[in-house]
Design goal:
Keywords: Electron transport, Heme, Iron, Membrane, Metal-binding, Transmembrane, Transmembrane helix, Transport. This protein is 13% helix and 26% strand. By secondary structure, the protein is an alpha+beta fold. It has one domain: Immunoglobulin-like (Sandwich), CATH 2.60.40.
C-alpha cells in the first residue's frame, strides 16, 4: 500500500521555529515528499496535478511543529471551497483506523462516545478563506471559554472523529451539542509565494497576493506535545515514541469548487511519526561540551603548575643568608 508505514522523524530543535507561515527557519530539518492521490480511490492517474506535498516535523521538548508545503496557483475567495484547505489526522483510540476516519461502524444516528469508544481520531482542519497570510490562528480565548476546539476567527479548527459521518469540534457532539471541556490547542499560519507578509497584512489587503500566480502554499502548525484533554479527543505525543499520522489537501482543480470528500492524501494508511529524543545538533554540542571540559581541566592543571613554580621561586629568592656576628664587629 502506498507509503504505508513510512516514518517521519521529529527532531529536537529548540528555540528556532516561529509560527508565521514561512519556511526560512526550517532549513536544518529533514524534508519528506509525498505524492497526493485522491483519498477515496488512490488513483495515481488522477493525482493532484501540481506536485507533491513536502512535510517537515520538529519539536522543542514542549511543542511539536509541522511544516507542509504544496505547489499550486494562488486562489483566494470568500467561498472556502474555491480555495486551498489542509488537514492533519492522528489516531487516538486503540482501534482507530486510517480508513473511515477511525472506523467506527455506527451510523450518524447512533454514534457517540460510548458506542464508538476506541475509534477516536484527532483532527486539525484549516480553511484559509477567513485567515490573513502570516497571521496566527487556532487557539483563542473566546472559543476556549466556550469549551470547544472551534476557531471562530480563522477556521483553524481542532476536532475529532469516529468515522466520516460522526465528527465535530473538540467539546461538541456530531449533532452540534456543546458538551464543553474541549479546547483548541493548535496554533497555525499560512502564506503563498505570491503573498508578501514582511510588513504585516490586514483584511483590507485582500486578496493578499496575485490571483492565479504560480507558487507554493506553506502551512505551519504547532501544538503542545501533551494537552489537558479528558474527552479522548487529542493525541498525546511522547518523546521517544512513535505515533500514527496522515495529511490531506483540498484544492479547486480545474476551477471547480471541491466537496468535502474530494481531498488528496499522502498515503493509504497511517504514516509513522517518531518523536526523537535528541536532535542533529545535540551530538556536536555534546562533543563541544566535552572538548571544553577537557580544555578547562588541562588549563586548570597548567595554572596550578605555574602557581607552584612561581611560589617556589619567590620562596627561594626571599631567603636571606645567615651571617654570624663576630665579636670584632661590636
Amino acid at each position: 500500500m502506498r507509503n504505508m508505514g513510512v516514518k517521519l522523524q521529529a527532531f529536537y530543535v529548540p528555540g528556532s521555529i516561529t509560527i508565521d507561515g514561512l519556511d526560512v527557519d526550517w532549513s536544518s530539518v529533514k524534508r519528506n515528499s509525498f505524492a497526493l492521490n485522491p483519498a477515496l480511490t488512490d488513483d495515481p492517474d488522477t493525482a493532484y496535478p501540481s506536485g507533491s506535498m513536502e512535510i517537515k516535523v520538529a519539536h522543542d521538548g514542549r511543542d511539536i511543529f509541522f511544516l507542509l508545503q504544496i505547489p499550486g496557483a494562488y486562489k483566494f475567495d470568500v467561498n472556502e471551497k474555491n480555495m486551498a484547505a489542509i488537514s492533519l489526522m492522528f489516531p487516538v483510540g486503540d482501534d482507530a483506523t486510517y480508513h473511515n476516519m477511525g472506523g467506527c461502524p455506527e451510523a450518524s444516528t447512533t454514534c457517540n462516545a460510548t458506542s464508538c469508544f476506541g475509534h477516536e481520531v484527532d483532527l486539525l482542519h484549516f480553511e484559509i478563506n477567513q485567515a490573513i497570510p502570516g497571521r496566527l490562528y487556532g487557539e483563542n480565548i473566546a472559543d476556549s471559554l466556550n469549551g470547544t476546539g472551534r476557531d471562530s476567527f480563522g477556521k483553524l479548527n481542532d476536532g475529532y472523529a469516529w468515522n466520516p459521518h460522526c465528527r465535530s469540534y473538540d467539546g461538541m457532539t456530531p449533532t452540534g451539542v456543546v458538551t464543553g471541556g474541549g479546547q483548541n490547542n493548535w496554533r497555525g499560519s499560512w502564506t503563498h509565494s505570491t503573498t508578501d507578509t514582511k510588513y504585516g497584512l490586514v483584511a483590507a489587503d485582500s486578496p493578499y497576493g496575485a490571483l492565479d500566480g504560480t507558487g507554493t502554499y506553506t502551512f505551519e502548525f504547532a501544538r503542545p506535545l501533551r494537552t489537558n484533554d479528558a474527552l479522548q479527543q487529542d493525541v498525546q505525543f511522547t518523546i521517544g515514541s512513535t505515533h500514527g499520522m496522515s495529511a490531506a489537501f483540498w484544492y479547486p482543480v480545474a476551477g471547480s469548487a471541491w466537496m468535502p470528500y474530494q481531498h488528496y492524501s499522502v498515503s493509504c494508511d497511517w504514516l509513522q511519526l517518531e518523536i526523537i529524543t535528541n536532535g542533529p545538533s545535540l551530538p556536536s554540542s555534546s562533543k563541544l561540551g566535552s572538548a571544553l571540559s577537557v580544555f578547562s581541566l588541562l588549563f586548570a592543571l597548567a595554572s596550578l603548575a605555574v602557581a607552584v613554580t612561581v611560589g617556589w621561586r619567590i620562596r627561594q629568592s626571599s631567603r636571606i643568608a645567615f651571617n654570624p656576628i663576630s665579636s670584632s664587629s661590636l
